Amino acid sequence: MACSPRNKELQKDEATLKHDQKMEWWRDARFGMFIHWGLYAEPAGEWKGERIPGISEWIMCNAKIPVKDYEKLAETFNPVKYNAEEWVKLAKYAGMKYIVITSKHHDGFAMFHSKASKYNIVDATPFDRDPLKELADACKKHGIRLGFYYSQAQDWHEPGGTYRNSDKQPHWDPEMTKAPLMDYIDSKALPQVKEILENYGGLDILWWDTPWEMTEEAAQTLQNVVNDYPDLITNNRLYRPWPGDFSTPEQHVPPTGLDYDWEVCMTMNTSWGYKWYDDNWKSGEELIKMLVDIASKGGNLLLNVGPTAEGEFPEPSIERLKEIGSWMQQNGESIYGTSASPFFKLPWGRCTMKETKGGTNLYLHVFDWPKDGILTVPGLDTRVSNVYLLANPKQSFAWKFEDGNLNIHAPSVIFDEINTVVVVKTKGGI
Ligand code: FHN
């Protein structure tokens, strides 16, 4: 079982034990899928023939689209190729243990059947199915945990919703009136958060976003609902000073681990929502090394897919999910249930660690095999029972302790930049 750095120091009081119990599956999971899907998949980064700079789910704001014009997208939004089973099976093949999908993004459009607002996929589009219900069912069937993203303050469709600097400048749509935040919270955010928590089989995660101009009153109103779900995991974006259960470094990997649970959210190209001409894709190898780097620091990776308006994952996303999946089939043991490396810095790669019955396993992810053929693990002076290649346990390595380090001698012939994971089984703790 992975444990966060914070538990090593703290006395395990009752609250900490309960928190650890709640977080256990999440810490062991290490890897999830983020899905940004909404009306913005239709324009896909382009408006009236013009390419709109920035992340495509922001197109309504960035292109200053009046509410009435943006609403028209719902009349033709009909993702007939949507197949929740396919999405979940792809996430599972990639080695992802949970999915977080946008239930309502800043544009205010609900991707679920909401009684609180008719501005939703069932009531406002020709697609008269509830895609999030189908996703919840498919996740249950395949043992994948499910979370909903909810933009609790930003809502560009409602008078009380916030947007960038809404406390300083008027909405880009002159017809949009202003209302107090609590009007929006009471009339839409609160009832919709209750709907998503009550109607989708029990969510595992609630992923808040952009708490700009949130107030303590608004945050407490929503938190009171969350408190009725003691096993629900929430992030640190409900209301800035509040930590939630995990922090959320975005589009970057922290240089070291953080002092409590954390999850990097990352796009595969540069946009969260589908952007048809954004072909700035990270390679599969880069994403695998990113996952390893994050796990070696004790964090999770939430890797994003932006489906098309037809309801399909973009082909480049599928390619990367399959490449990562092949790697995870072979090396997932070195990611799942591991905790951060006990070593400060390793010149040749990364290390993850896992407590087992017999002792501690170290998983050495070798990105650059040293030229002299000797892989040095600094300061390791515990008893070692075996050193072998994770991908082929029959391929063992000679090792010896020299000057307080463990030196592993290996024919570099086996070296493969992302598939060389060397397991050091020790007989005791580290
Ligand atoms: O504004 C959003 C953005 O559209 C996207 O949803 C990301 C994902 O973490 N969160 C906000 C930017 O931080």
UniProtKB/TrEMBL annotation:
Domain of life, per lineage: Bacteria
Family (UniProt): Belongs to the glycosyl hydrolase 29 family.
GO terms under cellular component: lysosome
Function: Alpha-L-fucosidase is responsible for hydrolyzing the alpha-1,6-linked fucose joined to the reducing-end N-acetylglucosamine of the carbohydrate moieties of glycoproteins.
Residue ranges constituting the Glycoside hydrolase family 29 N-terminal domain according to the UniProt record: 4-333
Biological process annotations from GO: fucose metabolic process; glycoside catabolic process
Naturally occurring in which organism (per UniProt): Maribellus luteus
EC number assigned by the record: 3.2.1.51
Part of the full-length chain shown: 14 to 443 of 582
Keywords: Glycosidase, Hydrolase, Signal
Protein name, per record: alpha-L-fucosidase
